[in-house]
Amino acid sequence: MNTSNKIMTGFLLLVFLVPVFVLLSFKSKIRSGQFTVVKNEQYKSANFREGNFQPYKVVKLVSPEGRALKCNLQYSDSLYYSYNVNDSRDSVRVYNLADTLFIQYINKTATKDNTDVYSHDELYIDVMLPSIEQLVINNAEVNISGVNTGGAAKNIMVEVYGTGFLSLGAINDEDNGTTNKSTDFYTIDQVSVKSADGEMSLGRNVHIGQLTINTEGRSTININEGASIDNVQGNLSDSSTVNASWKYVKKLAGLSKN
Q1: φ and ψ at 249, to 5 degrees?
Q2: CA-based max dimension of the chain
Q3: What is the pLDDT of residues 115-173, one digit of tens each?
C-alpha cells in the first residue's frame, strides 16, 4: 500500500469513527445524569379544555351579569373551542340544542351561609366556527375581529341583552387592550342589532353596507374612528347613548323614538 492509499484509508476511518465516539460520549453523559432526554410534546395544563360541536344556525351566549364570559369568535372551517378554567371547577358548557349552539357560563360558588350570592371569575373562550348569521348575547362579552372570507356570513342578526357587549372588528389597542393591528377591512353587507340595555362597538376596520339598530332601555352604541357605514336605519330609545364622530351622531340622532 503506497503512501497516498494509507492517507486516504486513515481519513475515511477518521470520518466514520468521529461520530461514533461522539455518540458514545453522549450516551455516557446521559447515563451519568449530566443530560436528560425529554420527549418534545405540546404542553397543555390540567386546566385546559377543548372540544368540538355540531353544525348550528344560531349562536347563543349566556353569562351572569357583568360579562364574566368573554368569547372570541373566529372564522374557520372547523367547529372547535378551547379555554382554560380558573381552578379545578369547570366553568362553561358548549353544547347543541336543536338549531342553537349554546356557550354558557355555569360556574357558581355559593357563600358559606348558602345564600344566593355568587362570585363569578372572568373566563375567556376561543370559538372557531365557519359562519355567524344569528347571534344572541345574554350578559356576555363577544368579540368578532377576523376578516370574513369564504363561507363567512354577509348578513348578521344580533340580539344583545343586559350587560351584554358586542365588538365587531379591531378596536384601538389602548382602548381594548388588544394586539390586533390588522389593517384589513371586515366587510359585512347587512348587520341588524336589537339591544335591550346592551352595548355594541364597531371597530376601526369594519365596513357595513346597511346597519339596522333597534334599542330599548340604556343601550350604548360606539362607533370607533375609521369604521365605515353606508346606510343606517332603525329606532333608538331616548335613554340610549351614542359615542361616535359627528358624521354618525347626526345619522343616529334621526333614529330616536318619539
Answers
A1: -60, -40
A2: 110
A3: 444 456 788 999 999 989 999 999 999 998 765 544 455 889 999 999 999 999 866 54
Instruction: Identify the pLDDT of residue 118.
Output: 47
Global pTM value: 0.74
Taking a C-beta distance cutoff of 8 angstroms, is the pair 198, 101 a contact?
no
Q: Is the dihedral of CA 131, 136, 138, 142 positive or negative?
A: positive
Give yes or no for a contact between 137 and 161, defined as CB atoms under 8 angstroms apart: yes
How many residues would you count in the chain? 258
Question: Of 106, 172, 101, 105, nearest to 140 (Cα)?
Answer: 105
209 contact partners, CB below 8 Å, separation of at least 6: 187, 188, 189, 190, 230, 231
Rounded to whole angstroms, the Cα distance separating 209 from 131 reads 18
Distance CA 40, CA 146 (A): 31
Characterize 56-71 residue by residue with b for buried, 16 or more Cβ atoms within 10 angstroms of its Cβ, and e for exposed. bebbbbbbbeebbbbb
Rg of the chain on CA atoms, in Å: 28
